């Protein structure tokens, strides 16, 4: 009897251990290989690039294997970087690359992308960004890393272009993260029509810059703003598209956000949101000089060849009050880009003059990417301002970015 009870106890213990292991194993996600692309970095004279990397895991370190890809696709392996749990590190790209090849630093034409390779349960375990700054000027850009997409399909990227003054330089940056040759087609839209150009093929891992002003001149478009579309017959997921503007004399810089367009996606209801659009009188939190006023506007583009009704709402805020009101956008015609002057609405009291911020919702029925929009509020000389990109995604949690407060930075 004792032998039987002893055997039964051992069996129960073994089964309990097995069930415990099975229960525990359900919560263990196996690690797999991932790649993130920082779509634009530069080591050219007068520019500084910093890589910011954060480990979002709370229980393990991650080893990052970074590589710098030149614009011609040549790849240079950089020293591995260990990121502890919940740790964030900032790396000066010139210092890292210079330790391997000093001839690449401070040389015109030395630009490209960076790939980060690592093993972890999810690509979202690492947040990374490239900060690209202009020395001696308040010109800075923030490029989030994107996960390499292996499920390439036909599609397009949609965007807006804007040339607020004759001194503004605007660049489109195309990065091919794939191992394949890609031939994109670029279409420019203005008030007086459209112009399409087939670009030279972009080789594996290559990066190319396109001067927007020159392209608009070639397209014989006379307006100062409009739309753009980058289409790819295949491998659309291989291309990352960035659009930057700057004026070093005025101290102006901006990013014009681009978005993927699901040309064959599901037709359903969508809402784009910009949570903080700066209005005419800046909030004191922006720390602009006393008396600064902003020309606040939003650019909205219908990226389809059909009319697109848009329902808009503005939620405004002042120091002492909040409120909301419908925003008359109406129906956008095929490929129409519309400028909505929020400052003019404040002058007519459609929005209270005392309001400093606005949250704007744009709703439509169609496919993802049928509508793109951005908010821009800048002083007349472009020296001071704030941007507000519109996005559709919402989340219960956000974790990742760095904040900076020093002699030349003040994060908001």
Give a description of the structure.
Helices cover 10% and strands 46% of the residues. It is mainly β. Strands 1, 3, 4, 5, 7 and 10 form a six-stranded antiparallel sheet that branches. It has a five-stranded antiparallel sheet with strand order 14-13-16-11-19, with helices on one face. A four-stranded antiparallel sheet has the order 6-2-8-9. It is globular, with a radius of gyration of 25 Å. 37% of the residues are buried. The model is unreliable at 1-25 (pLDDT under 50).
General shape: globular
C-alpha Rg (nearest Å)? 25 Å
* Rounded average pLDDT: 88
Task: Note the total helix count.
Answer: 4
Distance between the termini: 74 Å
Helical amount: 10-25%
- Class from secondary-structure proportions: mainly beta
How does the major sheet shape up? 6 strands, antiparallel
Number of strands: 27
Features:
27 strands, disordered N terminus, mainly beta, globular, 5-stranded antiparallel beta sheet
Quick synopsis:
Helices cover 10% and strands 46% of the residues. It is mainly β and 412 residues long.
What's the arrangement of secondary structure elements?
Layout: H1 2-25, E1 32-42, E2 47-55, E3 62-70, E4 75-77, E5 81-83, E6 88-92, H2 93-98, E7 111-120, E8 126-134, E9 140-144, E10 146-147, E11 155-162, E12 169-176, E13 185-190, E14 193-198, E15 207-211, H3 212-218, E16 225-232, E17 239-247, E18 252-255, E19 259-261, E20 268-278, E21 295-302, E22 308-317, E23 322-332, E24 337-341, H4 342-347, E25 357-366, E26 371-378, E27 385-389
Antiparallel strand pairs: 1-7, 1-10, 2-6, 2-8, 3-4, 3-5, 3-7, 8-9, 11-16, 11-19, 12-15, 12-17, 13-14, 13-16, 17-18, 20-25, 21-24, 21-26, 22-23, 22-25, 26-27
